Amino acid sequence: MSLLIDIQIIFYVGIISHIIISSIITIIGHLRKNERIKHLPILFGINAFTFLITVFVVTHYANFQIIDYVAFIGYSVIVSYVLTIEIPGYILLTKYDSKLIQILQNLRQKSIQLTYNFGSLDDLRQYFNENKETISSSTVTDLLDSFIQRCETIKNLDKSLYEISIKELGEQMQQISSRSKHPFPKLIEIFSLAGISFLLGQFLTYLL
Question: Under a CB-based contact definition with an 8 Å cutoff, are residues 90 and 33 in contact?
Answer without folding.
Answer: no
